[in-house]
Amino acid sequence: MRTSRALIATSFTLAAGVALAGCASGTPGASESPAPEDEILTIEHAQGQTEVAADPETVIVLDLASLDTLDALGVDVTGVAKGNLPSYLDDYEGDEYLNAGTLFEPDFAEIEAASPDLIIVANRSSEAYPELAEIAPTIDLTLDWTDYLGSFEANTRTLGEIFGKQDEVDAALAEIEDKIAQTQDAAADAGTGLIVLTSGGEVTAFGPGSRFGWLHDELGVTPAIEDVEAATHGDPVSFEFLLETDPDWLFVIDRDAATGEGTQSAEQILDNEIVAQTTAWSAGQVVYLDPAPWYIVMSGLTSVGTMIDQIQGGLS
Asked: Cα(211)–Cα(257) distance, rounded to whole angstroms?
């Protein structure tokens, strides 16, 4: 059975009775101790090192994966990038949270006025790092697609260290480790799989090492084809390509459903006489994945658990 090197390499400490819904930032729970007020942490991240005060109070989050993880850990935040938040995070659309702009266009004036103790950026907002770093301590938790689980774990542990939630992180990652092992077992004899994204009536495919490649690299689904271009939005393919590749399983992400664009659903785009001849379609083994965690959030404790559950459930 193949298991993630990044997760196996870490020794998990699963404390009895630890719950993910821990106390909010600045309010120590049973599994944590209050950090000294003057404690400064040196945090390694995608764009260097940043000195961050332990358990910061005023936090601006311009990354949905980080917001997902902080929400799961019970850490309160001050401001977020609003708009297109997934339903399970839509509480952050409320007026009690500062509107920090969008993932691609932060509102620098609003962020500076909030006098944040910490700003978090990642993949979509990472280009704003230099300007944000002039406002307040900023960290870049950009995900590395070529080491998805290792990068996800490192980012999660970074947030756990900053907010004193190490025990909660250990417990959450241990649970994800178990889910991965179960999914690998389900994938072992399931045959080949191909993950595709539909958008504007077009189809793009993803393979190992790509944005969604952890389906193969970590969850153990045998790729139907190896040489797919690892582009952000995949390698454009035809319906004939799907028939020639003929995967046993087809995993589908509807980008338009995630962004609110387009007029055709993934089901409508793929429902044609060519795709109908594939093994996946004829066997009823087409799995439509929730685009919110897969395309919008991309990582985070809640999303990763959800994505693994969807693959395991689809294969079962």
From this structure: 18
Least confident segment among 13-17, 34-38, 112-116, 302-306: 13-17
**Which pTM does this prediction carry?**
0.84
d(CA 115, CA 219): 42
**Residues 6+ away with beta carbon under 8 Å from 199:** 233, 255, 256, 261, 262
What is the helix (H) or strand (E) element at residue 303, kind and residue range? helix 301-315
Tally Cβ neighbours within 10 Å of residue 134.
10
Q: What share of the chain is helix, strand, coil (3-state, %, to 5)?
A: 40, 20, 40
Q: Residue 251's closest CA among 209, 222, 218?
A: 222
Helix (H, G, I), strand (E, B) or coil at 106: strand
Strand 118-121 relative to strand 222-223: parallel, antiparallel, unpaired? Answer: unpaired
**272 CB-side CA count, 13 A:** 13
Give the separation between CA 256 and CA 264, rounded to whole angstroms.
Answer: 8
Please report, as a single letter, which amino acid is at residue 98: L
